[in-house]
């Protein structure tokens, strides 16, 4: 039995972009909300922004004839400290509420989402004192269909 390809970044990004409470507080990149799944983020991406991923850890809950991956992934929100700190905190709070114990928040092709737990928001690393960040860590449990 071969496991289907596991792609969680795109569904997470799509869910975030579909939430008007989040996108109203974000900057723009190429006319779209500033939500990114690749690093480095483009230098002309607007603040505040959300970065999804990369996957921090991927494990598997044992199954004899089943694939049950567990994915741990960070969703970070960044802004310029002087202007955006309230929006950064608000977006991180919405992301937490949107995903914590909400297994129907995303659809992953080839898998059923059995559980999503969120922790945070906690401080996210920033390269300097001009930017502020908040991190929500998701643990996503899946079952291959």
Automatic annotation (TrEMBL):
It comes from the Bacteria. This is DUF3168 domain-containing protein.
């Amino acid at each position: 039995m071969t496991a289907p390809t596991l792609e969680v970044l795109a569904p997470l990004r799509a869910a975030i972009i579909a939430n008007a409470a989040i996108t109203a507080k974000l900057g723009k990149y190429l006319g779209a909300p500033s939500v990114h799944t690749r690093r480095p983020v483009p230098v002309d991406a607007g603040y505040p922004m959300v970065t999804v991923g990369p996957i921090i850890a991927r494990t598997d809950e044992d199954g004899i004839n089943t694939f049950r991956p567990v994915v741990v992934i960070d969703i970070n929100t960044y802004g310029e400290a002087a202007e955006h700190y309230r929006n950064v905190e608000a977006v991180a709070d919405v992301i937490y509420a949107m995903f914590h114990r909400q297994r129907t928040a995303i659809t992953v092709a080839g898998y059923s989402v059995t559980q999503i737990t969120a922790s945070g928001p906690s401080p996210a690393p920033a390269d300097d004192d001009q930017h502020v960040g908040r991190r929500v860590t998701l643990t996503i449990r899946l079952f291959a269909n």
